[in-house]
Every structure is written in structure tokens, then in C-alpha cells.
Amino acid sequence: MKTTLVIMAAGIGSRFGGGIKQLEPVGLNGEIIMDYSIHDAIKAGFNKIIFIIRKDIEADFREVIGERIEKMCAALGVEVGYAFQSLDDIPAGAGVTEGRSKPWGTGQAVLCAKKLVSEPFAVINADDYYGKEAFVKLHQYLCQNVGDKYDPNAFCMAGFILKNTLSENGGVTRGVCKVDANGYLTDVEETSNIVKTESGAEADGKAIDPDSFVSMNMWGLTPEFMDLLEVGFDEFFKTAAPANPLKAEYLLPIYIGQLLREEKVSVKVLETKDKWFGVTYKEDKEFVVESFKKLIAAGEYDKDLFSDLK
Predict the structure, then answer these.
(1) Nearest-CA neighbor of 259 among 107, 147, 143, 110?
(2) Contact at 8 Å (CB) between 269 and 215?
(3) How far is residue 111's CA from residue 233's CA, in Å, rounded to a whole number?
(4) What is the DSSP string of 27-61?
(5) 34: burial class by Cβ within 10 Å (0-12, 13-18, 19+)?
(6) Which residues of 249-258 are buried (b: 16+ CB within 10 A; e: fewer)?
(7) How far apart are CA 7 and CA 41, in angstroms?
(8) What CA–CA distance (Å, rounded) separates 140 from 63?
(9) How far apart are CA 4 and CA 143, in angstroms?
């Protein structure tokens, strides 16, 4: 069965090299976080990868990442493609206000891949390490939602435990989830400045249950979702964009939350107890490097990362 991994990498800076967090080497051989996600996805059964980037970084991206991954994937029979996020890729009749420089957020990013995705797919951020378990669970869910009982509006989400996703070096933004008794998502509340405390976690002085589920933008979706996403993007340009034309963003978890409230979709929360890693702050890098060393020492990964893939 064909299943696709969509990697949102358009946020990578146009100037490759030092200072671009998605390209910080964290593995023994200079691997970046994205390498580990690609490895784990292929190991779990995903056999197509779509990179979402910007046109202005295409040449550099292919040189630094794409060509290397394409060669490895070709040997494994894994397809690789590219979609391009652009500020000007907007609904007919809409316009871009002078002074706007950033594209329109993660919802638009995924929508850019619509013409390339005709199978169940997962979405991840380029600069987050999710762990092996989440990829396995998402792939299993996507493969189960097929055949006579196929539901085009049945999605899933990797549910990380909040305390496993916090930084030692400052506040983070997380989608704090509400989940019903049957394990289905009922709402996602984007919460900023979440920090560790002696008793757990808090945001701007308000305590948060450290065992809460949070979204790390790791979703399992159907190709039909792209149609909903396109409708939502049109609505966004009629409401949110005019109200804040320079900074409004069409965000994937916010739109999925809207669809949940309208009872148009369902999202099964797949619990993962893996620890999230990411270089949110410059000071995080040392911890991430040491964490990967421990995973390799424990046998979770080979020193030659992709050598176990066949």
C-alpha cells in the first residue's frame, strides 16, 4: 500500500549554513533531525516522501539534503517529490498586502502538496524528532482505514505527553489537546510559553497538567482532506486574512480543530511515550546531540543511520 510522508520544510532559511536550526548536525556522522524522521518513516512502511520547500531554496536544499536522500530512497524503491510553498499561491481573486513577506502557514504548506498526494499521508515538521513509535502507529492506522470501511474523514494524530516535549532552555508553544473517553480528539488549544516547573508545567503562570496530550504537528490524513483544506483556505482569505493581512496564518491544527467542532471529521489520538527532541533554542543542541548518542548506544539506531533499511 502506498503511504506518503509530507515534510514541512519551507521554514528553512534561504541562506544555508550556520544558524539554520533545521540543518544543525546532531548525529554521529553529521545527520540532521530530518534524516532520523525519514529513516523512521521508511522503517515503519512509508514509501513516498514529499518535501515542502520554497522555490528560492530549491537548489540549496537539493544539494544539502535532497540529492542525498533521493539516492538512498531510489535504492529502496521509495519515491521522492517536491512541493513549493509560495506567498502568491492564494485563492483566485485574493491579494497579497504590500509588506507581507511570509507565506500563509502550515495549512497552506500542506495544501501545496495536493497534486502530489493521492494516498493516505502523514505530516510532520522538518525540525522535530518524533521517535519511532509514532511513525509505526500512524502508518498502522492509515493502512487500517482502507477497504469497504474506508472513511475519508477519519484522521489520526500522534499524541505526545506534554512533559516529554518541553525544553530545558525556555518556553515552547504546544497544541494542548482535549481527548474524550474513547481516545478521540475534541479540541486543540494552541498554548504559548509553556515552561517546566517543580510541580510540572505552566503557561504564563497558569498550571498545565504535565501528562496532557499535546500535538506536535504530526498528523495522519486522507487524500480527501486536501479538498477540505482548500475550502478552509478560501474561507481564511475571506475572514482572517483581511483582519490581519501582514501576519495572519492558516494553521493546520487550528483548522482541524474547527472541523472537529463542526463535527465534519474525527481524529484518533495515538499515544506515544517517546521523547520529543528539537532545537527550539541554540542551547538545546547539546542535549539533542547527547540524546542521539544515547539512542545509538542503546541500539535504537546504527552508527550508519540508513544501513538497516532494505
Answers:
(1) 107
(2) no
(3) 9
(4) STTS--HHHHHHHHHHHHT--EEEEEE-GGGHHHH
(5) buried
(6) bbbbbbbbbb
(7) 11
(8) 33
(9) 11
CB distance 217 to 173 below 8 Å = no
Residue where the block lists cell 510532520? 124
Distance CA 67, CA 61 (A): 8
- Rounded Cα gap, residues 262 and 133, in angstroms: 30
The pairing of strands 206-208 and 213-221 is unpaired
Sequence letter at residue 111: L
Question: Alpha-carbon distance 289 to 292, whole Å?
Answer: 5
CA 221 to CA 108: how far, in whole Å?
15
Continuous H helices in the chain: 33-44, 58-61, 67-76, 106-111, 132-144, 225-238, 240-243, 252-261, 284-297
Residue by residue, pLDDT tens for the chain (310 residues) are 899 999 999 887 544 444 566 677 899 998 999 999 999 999 999 999 999 999 988 888 888 888 999 999 999 999 999 999 999 999 999 999 999 989 999 999 999 999 999 999 999 999 899 999 999 999 999 999 987 789 999 999 999 999 999 988 889 889 899 999 999 999 988 899 999 998 899 999 999 999 999 999 999 999 999 999 999 999 999 999 999 999 999 999 999 999 999 999 999 999 999 999 887 777 888 889 999 999 999 999 999 999 999 8
Q: Report helix, strand or coil for 218.
A: strand
Burial tier of 169 (Cβ tally within 10 Å: 0-12, 13-18, 19+) = middle
C-alpha cell at 280: 527550539
